[in-house]
Amino acid sequence: MVSPFQHKNIQNSNYPTLPNGFNDFLNEQIENLPTEDLILWEGNLNENQILFIPKKWVHFVVGGTSGISYSQDIVLKDNFNEWLNSIMLVR
Question: Global pTM?
């Protein structure tokens, strides 16, 4: 996970990017992305554990085994416009 304060560090157009402007961490060229100033959180979840990802934190998930995952956006009256803009950016 990457803090919103460090988004500029993973929006490097010299490396493969996704439609949302963030770098594509599945592309093998990403290992050359300069990340010396990047603070990452990495971890492993075990069965029946939950991870809460805060608003605007960029994240990349790899499933190590087959299973089921569930994600949900919490959309309220106060954040509806921001949520709508975020999904329109990706599409």
Answer: 0.59
Q: Which residue has the tokens 């996970």?
A: 1
b/e per residue 20-47 (b: at least 16 CB within 10 A): eebbebeeeebeebebeeeeeeeeeeee
Angle at alpha carbon of residue 37, lines to 31 and 41, rounded to 5°: 75
Ranges of each domain in the chain: 1-91
pLDDT tens track for 25-43: 788 887 787 777 777 777 8
CA dihedral 42, 43, 44, 49 (to 10 degrees): -120
3-state secondary structure 7-28: HHHHCCCCCCECCCCCECCCCH
